Amino acid sequence: MKQFDLLVSEQLKTMDQLLDLQTELERYKSLEYLRGRERDEESLRELRVEIQKRQQELHLLHQTFEQQTRQVIESFQQEKSYT
User: Fold this and answer.
1) What is the pTM of this model?
2) For residues 9-36, average pLDDT
3) DSSP of 26-58
């Protein structure tokens, strides 16, 4: 079960990163809305660049999480077959 536990631990860390990044992305989107209402075009452009970066990071983290999920499942099945 050592491998399984290690994989689950890594996946939990990734999940924390996902949650933090989603929170940060929501904050940026709120700021984007406010800047749009204020018609602050320069700040709006900068925010949109940051939002795009965070969305790309989020996409990559989702892919990592999915890969980790497959690894956890495979590890569990292997461990189960040994017992």
Assistant:
1) 0.82
2) 94
3) HHHHHHHHHHHHHT-HHHHHHHHHHHHHHHHHH
